[in-house]
Amino acid sequence: MARIELKNVTKKFGSVAAVDNLDLVIEDGSFTTLLGPSGCGKTTTLRMIAGLETPSDQGEIWLGDRCLYSAKEGHYVPPAQRKLGLVFQSYALWPHLTVFDNIAFGLEIAKLSRKELTKKVEHIASVLFIGELLQRFPNELSGGQQQRVAIARVLVMEPAVLLLDEPLSNLDAKLRMDMRAELKRLHAETQSTIIYVTHDQLEALTMSSQIAVMNHGKLQQYQDPMTVYHHPANIFTGDFIGNPKINLLPAEAIQADGGVQVSIGSLTTEIAGARMPENIGTEPLKITTGVRSEDFRVATEASPNMVRGTVYSVLPAGSQFYLKVKLEEEMITVTVYEDLHLNIDDPVWISVRSDRVKCFDETGLLIWRN
Ligand code: ATP
Question: Environment class of residue 68 by beta-carbon count within 10 Å: exposed (0-12), middle (13-18) or buried (19+)?
């Protein structure tokens, strides 16, 4: 079984904890993405799973019921015996070998018969749509095709787990999009466990079954993409995921009959059914709200329960329009999906979708889940 478990894993480089007490279970058959900014410890985590890096004196790593690393037992399985497939950002194909021979390389070392080897190479090549390219050399391929050969070369060895470290980052935007779709299909077809490292939040949202958000070596949140997007566990995650960036706005909260009333300046909304934390006195609680740009409502005429703002800029983006709107104190970014024919300095009226407002306490943690 290709379930991976990291228990209390830490990796220090000098005094820097690149990975700090990480507990993570990657389920068999999942597409799990390690996501976070540069230096957050994603690659180090992947390299520890692969066996290319050894944790610092504590913790355990398991593959199914096989212990790959245990500090306590002094147990360490070297990379070649872990049977994991690794694809890095640079494809490093053999330039003097054809695509066929590049893919067949590992099978030849494993001494498969020519017939069996050919069958496996042709099968994996057809899954990755490179069946027509088998006689070409790497320098006769596009970046995307080279990338698929690199993946085919790993997949043909039938690894229990495929580890991918930013494999698409050398590709142009269009090719990256196509390759995301193909990787996702590949995952569905092979049912393999994929662990994917990226700093690209859109890549994580579009491809993963689970996202592990990391920062400073620590796990921030580990859930499915929609939950991470709509219910970020903390400000860091809310801010890191989403484009345009989430609007982070200071606000005050008080208990009302049906829930908690939140005031972002004069913009008020209610978190239905929510209760204020205990023992905080009678003063309004100072919080930070997170509102995604698409969770504002915009009207071009005065409407009840909406506050007036002024258009600061309009950025048309084809299917949607990004507005910067100046409210009393704050500048907000709003996405609208129709052309409201707005110009700079036009008045607009704004409200928020109460079911989408995220409230964070002074330590940055999500308070209520609506
Ligand atoms: P990126 O997206 O830039 O690749 P990352 O999230 O994958 O970043 P890591 O490569 O895991 O981050 O690095 C985590 C931290 O550990 C960083 O501060 C990095 O400088 C440090 N680090 C990583 N490898 C080493 C090393 N071999 N020696 C010293 N420090 C290292």
Answer: buried
